[in-house]
Amino acid sequence: MSTIKPSIPKGTRDFCSAVMFRRNFIFETVKNAFERYGYAPIQTPAMENMETLTGKYGEEGDRLIFKILNSGDYLSKADIDKKTTSKSLTNQISEKALRYDLTVPFARFVVQNRNDITFPFKRYQMQNVWRADRPQKGRFREFFQCDADVIGTDSLLCEIELIQLYDEVFTQLNIPNVEISINNRKILAGMISLMDATALFDDVVIALDKLDKIGIEKVKEEMLSKGVKAASLSVLDAFLNAKDISDLAPLLEKSARGKEGLEELQFVISTVADVGLQSAKLVFDITLARGLNYYTGCILEVKAKDVNIGSIGGGGRYDDLTSIFGLQDISGVGISFGIDRIYMVMEELDLFPTAIDVSTAVMFANFGEQETTFCLPLLKQLRANGIRAELYPTAAKMKKQMTYANNKGVQFVIMVGEDEMNSGALTLKNMVNGTQEKLKVTELIKKLS
Predict the structure, then answer these.
(1) Strand order in the sheet with 389-391
(2) Which end of the chain is less congested by CB atoms within 10 angstroms, N or C?
(3) Residue 104: CA count within 13 A, CB half-sphere
């Protein structure tokens, strides 16, 4: 048998134990905040039916969905001729796909389980998603999302709570200089209507969403190529020059939908200002567009300003998402935490507590069969008291056992020989400073706890 060079697909990663301890620290911080705010966990399958996912993320998003080939001889059932394209063939040979995000599967879940759900329904979900994107810094083909959503109410208090939830988590993680940008898709709809480009709404929003990456001139070029009139760009300039939310009122005077969005935005911003945030800063950003098709109201995006890595969170209001699955008039709003980018921010700013990197607090050295028999009940007792403990599996040379403990970052080593078994006082070695002391089991548990 030939040897296979070990490798993984581009855009995916293995995580060693040290990294997983840190990732789990973020997961636990986010999860605890979710539950303090009354959100309940759910899970959905890694794969969804193709029709569930397509058409929800815009044309560019649809291209990034990972398709799954049908089982068996899928080509034998395909109708292939000279007119067959890769897209039409894909529709014939692929009925399922890996989920692109957690929001669309959540909408499907709500409709499918609506008889068992109490509305408003507050859920959180922490799972992998996949996108057939070009891998680069902070952008992967497989990554983790942590979402919180409220569905079944159009109350703007939900937007306020989700902003507070962002602030809570990033304060707990000690990430400094966090900025939460806010806008409203109704304002964008009003602007695009005044540009006489309503039929090109998706194209304009997708182009505007690239402003940070390609600059205003390239954005305008893209809009013109999609059919936006050159004269309409002066309207765009007027909105982009709005530095404060108060500048929008005269611009939206002739747009009822735009004024509605402005009122919603003013309510959220003023209420958050009255309540206050712990450390994050909420700022209005007229350029914030969020290119996903399903957003209809308030939209949010979060950045850590001290690190050039893009957004570390985002979300918004969606009024029509469940209607595509047959459930009308169910509004929802949600946010997502980009765990992978949050990790990169915390690593770059050296924000991880050192204690989280340790898997074992104390290790029993192995001196032989008799000593092991004596140690096993003690090991069980330590674990029952919440102390992370293990026993070295063989009676290897002490140098080897100590090297293992040192490399693993074990804080203490317990040595039990004949004297310790007779006296009941165990020898505890501090692996940091090398000191040793004799302790009874009760004293040992108190010290290690």
Answers:
(1) 389-391, 362-364, 412-415, 426-430, 436-439
(2) N
(3) 26
Residue 8's CB is within 10 A of a number of other CB atoms, namely 9
Residue found under tokens 């394209």:
85
SS3 90: helix
Q: Which of 116, 128, 249 is nearest to 187 (CA)?
A: 249
pLDDT tens digits for range 42-78: 999 999 999 999 888 877 788 899 999 888 777 767 7
pTM > 0.90: yes or no:
no
Name the nearest CA neighbour of 406 among 368, 358, 367: 358
The phi-psi region of residue 95 (left if phi > 0; otherwise alpha if psi is between -120 and 50; otherwise beta) is alpha
Query: Residue 307 belongs to what H/E stretch?
Result: none
**Which of 359, 358, 369, 421 lies closest to 393 in space, CA to CA?**
369
Per-residue DSSP letters for 233-287? HHHHHHHHT--SGGGHHHHTTT-HHHHHHHHHHHHHHHHHHHH--SS-EEEE-TT
Coil vs helix vs strand at 46: coil
445's tokens:
């548990």
| Nearest in space to 426 (alpha carbons), one of 379, 360, 380, 369 | 379
With the CA atoms of 349, 353, 359 and 365 taken in that order, what torsion angle do they form, in degrees rounded to the nearest 10?
120
In three-state form (DSSP H/G/I as H, E/B as E, the rest C), the secondary structure along 155-224 is CCHHHHHHHHHHHHHHHHCCCCCEEEEEEEHHHHHHHHHHCCCHHHHHHHHHHHCCHHHHHHHHHHHHHH
Number of Cβ within a 10 Å radius of residue 25: 18
Counting every residue, how long is the chain? 449
Q: What is the bridge-based pairing of β-strands 389-391 and 121-130? A: unpaired
| The two structure tokens encoding residue 149 | 């959503």
Above 80 in pLDDT, residue 259?
yes
Q: How far is the CA of 24 from the CAs of 18, 132, 141, 187, 336, in angstroms? A: 10, 26, 20, 39, 17
